[in-house]
Structure prediction request, 407 residues.
Amino acid sequence: MPDQEMQVRCCVVGGGPAGMVLGLLLARAQVPVLVLEKHADFLRDFRGDTIHPSTLEIMHELGLLTEFLRRPHNETRTLRAQIGEDWLDIADFNHLPTHCRFVAFMPQWDFLDFVAEKGRGYADFQLATQAEVMDLIEKNGRVRGVRARTPDGRLNVMADLVIGADGRHSTVRQKAGLEVEDLGAPMDVLWMRLSRRADDPGQTLGRIDAGRILVMLNRDDYWQCAFVIAKGGFEEIRRGGLPAFRQEIGRLVPYLRDRTAELHDWDDVRLLSVTVDRLRVWHRAGLLCIGDAAHAMSPIGGVGINLAIQDAVAAANILADPLRRGAVGEGDLRKVQRRREFPTRATQRLQVFLQNRVIGRVLTRRGQVRAPLLLRIASRWRYLRRLPARIIGIGFRPEHVRIGAPP
Ligand SMILES: Cc1cc2nc3c(=O)[nH]c(=O)nc-3n(C[C@H](O)[C@H](O)[C@H](O)COP(=O)(O)OP(=O)(O)OC[C@H]3O[C@@H](n4cnc5c(N)ncnc54)[C@H](O)[C@@H]3O)c2cc1C
Prediction:
């Protein structure tokens, strides 16, 4: 079958939060855009399912907030965690300077479906699923497009600009030869679901105890649980057997004890390896990376989606005009990195500090665990709880939609 050819102004690789929001914003600003997503749909379990106040603010700026909040979701206004035997209040979102003073928990596929539906309302928006980008098309040192594999054969997409939003295992950044700085991560995460009952606590961040961390997200009828383990430690846990693993969960959170049998075999426990890295330079002539493709985020604080979406908003603000004129230069791409580098570095620095100084130590600790003194003080002083709420809910540099919809 001969290769199919397409020509588009901007080709976005990856239909995750960064790619889909960028596609919507560019199409809204009358830039013809094609988003290529390798999966057939957005239905994948264990993606981050948090929609932060700053993302909800973007929905408000797009005039979509009311409709968006009609979709089933949970609203979390404060975060609590149990460290050792102490219950601590970690963050209070009630004072944020945003329309929504809560984190919305919504399955990510619902969020992405919503963005796709809104994108399709614009003539300049195209989404191709089951289109996996395998390589870049280059000419005279400039990226001119991508080669994708689809069920109907090969597809070559020629574009003024290719944007890699294909996540932390980005093919685009690898094929572009962009240099990656690895910041290291001492942990991996085991994801699993356990049913939730009406008399369980409401929202909790879970339990931290000697050598063990269990993060629990309230999904109404089930808990989405993340069991944090030392990097590479899954094989040892498997060798210990599933009954021992179930027992460990029950010991950490006693009210889950009678539900651990829901973990029938290891297929019910999914290993997600954690990576924290970033590109030194996010762009080349004809190509830019954003979101996890430019900077893979740790799950700490659940801020990766927020950051990815903020990258998308900044990229759309800066690039819509030059893209419309068909004149995107490397200077424009540099501006995007310059705008987003500070919040990326600041967030990663905090994540690396927490993962090395707090999580790494908890995972290797055998005796009793107590929360750091600062955290215990902050938990009692409500003004201090506003700071983590701001970092988690808004981040270091919020972005606002500056490009208008056509009349
Ligand atoms: C264990 C774990 C838990 C996390 N939990 C949270 C959380 O609760 N909240 C939070 O905010 N962040 C969380 N994060 C971080 C968050 O998942 C990422 O920061 C965020 O998803 C980045 O969004 P993105 O759009 O850049 O990339 P992704 O969400 O990774 O999306 C990339 C998309 O590109 C597609 N793709 C990949 N390769 C290709 C290709 N070659 N061709 C076409 N399509 C391709 C993928 O299918 C995917 O749809 C977590 C991370 C980990 C590791």
In short: Residues 13-19, 36-39, 48, 50, 132-133, 165-167, 171, 189, 272, 274, 291-293, 297, 299, 302-306, 308 surround flavin-adenine dinucleotide (CB under 6 Å). The chain has two domains: 4-73+96-182+275-350+383-393, 187-230+232-273.
